[in-house]
Amino acid sequence: MIIGSLIFCESCGNLLSLPEHHSRSSTIRCAHCKQSQKFNIQEELAIVTRSNPNAFPSILRQKRTLVQNTTNSAGHQNDPAAAPLMDESCPKCNNPQMRYHTLQLRSADEGTTVFYECPNCRQARSVVKPSHLPIRNTNQVELK
């Protein structure tokens, strides 16, 4: 059985090796089950293989997608303007409050990353919080 450029044994399904010296009509013997089978080699056989980015899933690409498509607890896309405010002054414009959201970018035993954005000047920064500090589900986060 020929599939693309691969030749398989019709008895056991083992992948067969093409013999080094072969004629247009040759016989191949399976190294596994010892069955012989005939095959024809086409002189001008062109094999075209097509693929797409999703054909070979990447763990890194999946993680990137999870970070980019964050959703809130209601399952809706997060709106940065709806992020809670906390009493943290902006280092750029000294606005007394900044918006924040958190993501677990590292492994579960490491700290959560907190992203801050000033609603006034749009200055953004991120801080990794140690895992032993509780982050409460309120409008204010206790920073130490």
UniProtKB/TrEMBL annotation:
Zn(2+) 2 binds at residues 90, 93, 118, 121. One of its GO terms (molecular function) is zinc ion binding. CDD domains: Zn-ribbon_RPA12. InterPro entries: DNA-dir_RNA_pol-M_15_CS, Rpa12/Rpb9/Rpc10/TFS, Zn_ribbon_RPA12_C, Znf_TFIIS. A zinc finger (C4-type) spans 9-33. Transmembrane segments: none annotated. Residues 86-125 form the TFIIS-type domain. It holds the Pfam family Zn_ribbon_TFIIS. Its main location: nucleus. One of its GO terms (biological process) is termination of RNA polymerase I transcription. Zn(2+) 1 binds at residues 9, 12, 30, 33. One of its GO terms (cellular component) is RNA polymerase I complex. DNA-dependent RNA polymerase catalyzes the transcription of DNA into RNA using the four ribonucleoside triphosphates as substrates. Belongs to the archaeal rpoM/eukaryotic RPA12/RPB9/RPC11 RNA polymerase family. This is DNA-directed RNA polymerase subunit. It comes from Puccinia striiformis. The lineage of its organism: Eukaryota, Fungi, Dikarya, Basidiomycota, Pucciniomycotina.
